[in-house]
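pinging the channel bc i need a second pair of eyes. not urgent but kinda urgent?? the chain im working w is below, pasted from the shared doc
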Amino acid sequence: MGKRKRVAEGNGLGSKIPSNDIPHANKKARQGDREPVALQIIAGTYERVLHGISAIIPYHQDGDDNTKLGVDFADTFLFNAHASAIRCLALSPARKSDKVILASGSSDQTINVYHLSASRPSPKNGRRNSLPSLAGRNIVENPRNRELGSLQHHAASVNALKFPTRSKLLSAADDSTIGVARTRDWTVLSSIKVPIPKAHGRPSGDTAPLGGTPAGVNDFAIHPSMKLMVSVSKGERCMRLWNLLTGKKAGVLNFDKTLLQAVGDGRWGRGEGFKVEWHSQGEEFVVSFEKAAVVFGLDSKPRGVVRTSPPSKIHQIHYVDLGVDEKGYANPLAISTEDGRVIFFAADSKHTLDPVSQIPICPAIGQIGGGIENFGSRIKDFEYLTIQGRQSPIRTPLIVTGSSDGVIGIWKLDLLSNLGTLHASGQIVDAPNGINGQKLDWTIPEKIPAIGQLLGKYEVGNRITCLKAFCLVEVDDHQDMSGSILRDHLERKDNTEVMDNGSSDSA
């Protein structure tokens, strides 16, 4: 008996899926000079769900405005990852046509590890993996995204995860330890013990139990040379330097009274650092407090104070790596706030001095969000990316934001075209005609210009706590997929054996 051809009319489950409905379909023949660029976005939520979304952005080679073209979003995976809220995420450095390691940390004391594909599905795979949805969302599942296992070497909530290289994973938790794990076999090589601070009263906002002391590592940052690390902890008005070659403490730098007054933490304030980030060149680093941040040099002396106007709580900090060329473009500092903004500051500028601490105040040079396109909720996390067409030398900067109301936004930045030149000496030179023909006064925070265009937004349906994103590489149609499937099967078998052996040894 011959097989019947399963072709139905309409949009039923047995109908053929047209190529226009496939988010990852190849549309170069109809797009002309427009090339789609794919992003993989991962969002951790309060509801213990790890949500993966792919975004296809139409890209113009000539740099035209692509705001009206829209962004095609599709769900790629949805993991019920942890038994409690997800607190942090980390991505390993990706190589071309290779996999990316994803690590997620939670308040349930575990670290889950995943393998994500760094390549876009080919058109035939996109046709095969496009799934119907009752919610009206595009679902494109990639079989190469899978879970590897979990690490349980911490005894408290995991607060920070970092991949300094593809072979090492560092994690910090509320048990005042920083663990170092090897990604080849997921063996914990060492554990750096951070001293528990002595109790000097109970600062405002403290959540330690009665009779206890607030303890735990809030965040840490690794120098680009991989030899030095800076950490900030709970209950400590200081930051600690660590020698990664020996794994021992290299020094303790206390926050003095004038510095805490400059950031708005008085006598009864917490005075502890929440986030720390190194500059890409390793020349400076920034430590964020509750409503301000301080930029330090290699000599550990303050270089500038970052404040928001109006004052708002800071959730995340990142350096925007624009590079330095013959025009003197610098790398501004970006922070996300409670009022739903991402504000960019000239971290190396020397405009005015703080009257109390005599530390230079870094001026704000631009912002996105803050009521624009109904973005008023707090931005918990964001990621800076650059996209580039295969036949275009132009690199377009993007900001991917994640709000606590479950909205993911993709913004196109206009830093270079609108803000003039940021000289290496720290002086800001305005564009000849300013922004939209108006001269700008950088000393007035209320006149911060909007420098971003919203390309698209997507609602995940859960409250976002952390976010990561990376650019997907395109796979040629003539690539042999059977070899990749066999390689995935062998890697899955090896990883399963490693995890089983590790669990049996720990038992």
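so The mean pLDDT is 76. and The longest strand covers residues 34-45. — does that match what u expected or am i reading it wrong
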